């Protein structure tokens, strides 16, 4: 029998998650059935959507049950196999969550080639975050040469890819991030045309100055005060792919202040805006092969760069998760679980 060390949801958070919402435990894994493999987790992906899965609020996916393993994408090594096409030593992309080992159906796994790119990139630029940027921007945002694309949380795995893909398509990329270091990285390493620090006291004024011709595409990752500064600058027929609302994830109730919904609807009408929420899975069948081809090519020719924020050890996953929600990460957050 093989034991797994796993981090489970111990309780539902009220507001920001804390260590008390998680519990670490060990459990025996069942023997393999036909078509299954035994996996040893190498890397765990941490992503903002996980905060929503901790809650029972209405969402696009079921919440994690109390006592269940926290969800998450993983890169793992095959330790044993009873599935054709999978052998000991293979490296695969799966969804084992916050644990060291797992028994998984091989039909849900994708084999990776460690010789083509670092395997951790399958959780970032060559995985779900990269595809989220690719599909949301190209399918909904549809940037055209010469247009201005603004993206929030721009040094994260989705935002950084959005800006760089916009540049590939001939658009002007403006990134919004927290702090001078992140803003400098956007320009120096990711090739954005402008970067604005949302923590600056004159953030709204800086943003307006950075988009003299207005905003044609706003890729929404954050909402909150950032969105409030962006929306007055949207051009007629602007497109807004709504990917995430991280500023609201820890909210325990309705926000204080006046109801801004009537004004928001008014702006949609007056400017003929297209605002569309999306989940990347709805575009997988149509776009995923194109994404893998295009993104691999852009990385190879230097059009797209990526940055990883790696934490060592599964036991440090909760702290890394808290830091990501607070904006303390710098790049794609992954936990290195094993060598």
From TrEMBL:
Q: Which GO terms describe its molecular function?
A: oxidoreductase activity, acting on the CH-CH group of donors, NAD or NADP as acceptor
What SMART domains does this protein map onto? PKS_ER
Q: Name one Pfam family in it.
A: ADH_N_2
Q: Which residues cross the membrane?
A: none
Read off the InterPro entries from this record: ADH-like_C, ADH_N_2, ER, GroES-like_sf, MDR_fam, NAD(P)-bd_dom_sf
Keyword vocabulary terms for this entry: Oxidoreductase
Every Enoyl reductase (ER) domain range: 15-335
What PANTHER family would the database entry show? PROSTAGLANDIN REDUCTASE (PTHR43205), PROSTAGLANDIN REDUCTASE 1 (PTHR43205:SF7)
Protein name from the UniProt record: NADP-dependent oxidoreductase
Q: Origin organism of this chain?
A: Nocardia colli
